[in-house]
Amino acid sequence: MNNVFRETRELPVLELLDYIWCHQMAHHYKRQTYALTLPSTDSDYVAKHLKVFTDNCVAAWTFKVTPSVHLQALVEGPGGDKYDVMLDPELKGGMCSCRFFQQYLVPCAHAIAACYEFNQAPGKYFDKCYLNSTLQEAYQVPYPMVLLSELDLDTALDPPQRKMHRGRPATVRKEPGAGPPRQTM
Ligand SMILES: [Zn+2]
């Protein structure tokens, strides 16, 4: 970001702010245009942009799943490593003892294996931050245009009043016995 403003950082404050505002407005418009081209079906974005998810979907077929109760299972990898998985369709999330699921809010291979076991679509366990609709919503409101020539002049720009205390600043008194012991020769 610093590089973008290299040329303009020498400008007076108001012109610099105006430049930053216009830059961000154009960037926002680009993102908004992109968001509107995305399909309304959220799983398309998920499948297209998150290779890790598609890799996990393939790996999940090699795992052994032992269900505990509905949507909870012990998942065993090909190397004998075991993971505790819990799916929560209400929250569109879940947890796995490998912690990938909680950290990235994307189902890990173990959680996907559990999805296969319980006939769940893994795509619905993505956090809503990955959804097209979230992106579209984020860029829904455009930047308002600002013209420097139409700004009202604000003359009340005096610095805040500060009261200076007279004399030496007060020191904090120590209770007897507090603080480091006094060194003696
Ligand atoms: Zn996992």
UniProtKB/TrEMBL annotation:
The keyword ATP-binding does not apply. GO terms for molecular function: zinc ion binding. Keywords: Metal-binding, Zinc, Zinc-finger. Residues 158-185 are annotated as: Disordered. The keyword Disulfide bond does not apply. This is SWIM-type domain-containing protein. Transmembrane segments: none annotated.
